[in-house]
Structure prediction request, 545 residues.
Amino acid sequence: MISIFLKEINEFLDSLIAYVVIGVFLVGIGLLMWVFPDTNVLDYGYASMEPVFSLGPYVFMFLIPAITMKSFAEEKRNGTLELLYTLPFREIDVIMGKFLAGYFLVLFSVLPTLVYYFSLFQLGNPAGNLDTPGIMGSYIGLLLLGGVFTAVGILSSALTGNQIVSFILSAFLCFLLYAGFDSLAGINIWADWSYLISELGIMAHYSSMSKGLIDLVDLAYFIGAIAIVLMFTKLILGLKK
Amino acid sequence: MSVVISELTKIYGEQRAVDAISFEAPKGKVTGFLGPNGAGKSTTMKMAVGYVVPTSGSITLDGVSVTEDPLEVKKMTGYLPEHNPLYLDMYVREFLRFIGSAYGLKGSTLKHRVEEMIETVGLNREKKKKIGALSKGYRQRVGLAQALIHNPSVLILDEPTTGLDPNQILEIREVIKNISQDKTVILSTHIMQEVEAICDKVVIIDKGQIVADDQLTVLKEGMNDSNGIIITFEQAVDRQVFVSGGFEPKEYGENAYLIESDRDDLRAALLKITSENDLPLLSLTKAHKSLEEIFHRLTQNQKS
Prediction:
């Protein structure tokens, strides 16, 4: 698993992918947080990182599929999957190696936004007048959400040998998982089931975490979702043999 | 360490790509695996390395079953796939290090093996390049180095010399021959000279079924039912001389004829004619059926 992980990381660093992903994420979030008039906190008047956490998932929805789209699709197209599968790796090693490498990149793109926290900390009046637990909760939520998106991206990549199909599919699935269930639950036909349906989506768990409440149920939801999606990936790769 | 394949079958949809084949590749020998395009060679090899799951039947490498313990089998197998897929963005050393680490090689052993492989397959001049920048022949060498890096006891090579120039072919054949002494090697190829040059045993497959499985020498001998003689002269000789002697000579290159007959004492009879007519004889040799003809005959028979 480690050798796959290192290989993938090297690939990210050798190609421009890593720099573009981290750069675009930071520029995008930075603009939303500090510059764009509709969303910037300076005009907003409250020391909050709300823009990062409410818009972050939407930025991830495009960036993470871009990171993961080649993971299996390209190996399939180049035939190198055959090479990989005839090396003494277990299938789960290959999947986990690729997942963790993608996730690593996500972590690294989020890490620099901690600077925003310290800027806001100083901007608050008085300094430090900030909802720190809420922000920490949101960070954990955002990282877990990033994990689910990465897993979904890996799954889409395993489904097809075409990177573009993989990208579109995973962006759509991420959107469905994040906002889709919540919106579906809003349709006025579910009666009492509506709550349950919204609980299936990521948004319900993400927003409860951003209140600073780290509930075991939410943690279990995210980790469970990652595990289930990766298991599906294994199943699909196994079927294609 | 031998490879035993028994009743191996792979069905894709309606098509029986490999149909209940059984053969054995002995240790210390090079087994040539031949067959026309689409005969099932690559599928069989992919099954032997655990990439394709067989529909039924078994493959064992020194008693270890591919389907039951694929990880163990993969550890002791080196495999060069048909189209030699490589990571083109990687440097030669980087790639070999990755493959080596996958086989559990570490630290100085890994470093040492990488350099040794670069030396063995003759990649020294190109070792600092990206794989994408290498020519086909050199990529093939990288593929071979990749298959050899963990010193596997079983080596499965799917058309190892395609795309190489004649010198490279000779070099790579030499490499394969040298390493085969304590390994089991199975290689598929279209080039018959290659089989004659390095294989000890030949398995010919056609339409998913085995049509020949024998030692190379036995196969060639057994197939040699023709009783032809090639007779060569110093200068052009009128074929009429032989026709009058009751033979039917066929042109066989410059100043030479191929003469086939049911008679047993062909050579003696021909010598008699030459001496009687005072012809300048250069040589008189038995015509051998080439492996190519044998291959053609075996795989052609199936079709009719």
In short: Chain A is about 80% helix and 0% strand. The CA atoms of residues 17 and 229 of chain A lie 24 Å apart.
